[in-house]
Write a structure and sequence with these properties.
single chain; mainly alpha; Helix Hairpins; 3 helices; about 75% helix; elongated; NADP; thylakoid
C-alpha cells in the first residue's frame, strides 16, 4: 500500500478547498452552497491532518478535525432546516432572491 506524501496531501487539500470555494461562489441553490461549504471544511481537515503528521503530533490534528466535523454537522443541520423552512413558505431555495426572509 502506497502512502501519500506531505506535498500530495497539501495539494489534495488545497484542490478540495478551491473546488468548494468555486462551488460556493457560483451556486444559486442553498443546498448546493451548503454542500460546497462542507467541501471547504473537508479540505481544511485534510490540511490539518497533513500538517500534524509533518510535526509528529498526530493527535492534535485529528482531535481538531473531530471538532471541525462536529461543527460542520451542526451547520449542515441548521442550514438544511432553514432551507426547508424557506422552501415550504416560498417554494424556492434560490440564494439570489433577496426577499426570502421577509414575511
Amino acid at each position: 500500500m502506497q502512502q501519500i506524501t506531505f506535498e500530495q496531501g497539501l495539494i489534495l487539500g488545497a484542490y478540495i478547498l478551491c473546488v468548494g470555494f468555486f462551488g460556493l461562489i457560483t451556486s444559486k441553490n442553498t443546498v448546493r452552497a451548503l454542500m460546497s461549504l462542507e467541501s471547504i471544511f473537508n479540505g481544511i481537515i485534510l490540511n490539518f491532518i497533513t500538517l500534524s503528521n509533518l510535526f509528529d503530533n498526530r493527535e492534535t490534528g485529528e482531535i481538531f478535525s473531530l471538532f471541525v466535523i462536529a461543527i460542520a454537522a451542526a451547520e449542515a443541520a441548521t442550514g438544511l432546516a432553514i432551507a426547508l423552512s424557506i422552501h415550504r413558505n416560498r417554494r424556492s431555495t434560490r440564494i439570489d432572491q433577496s426577499n426570502l426572509l421577509k414575511w
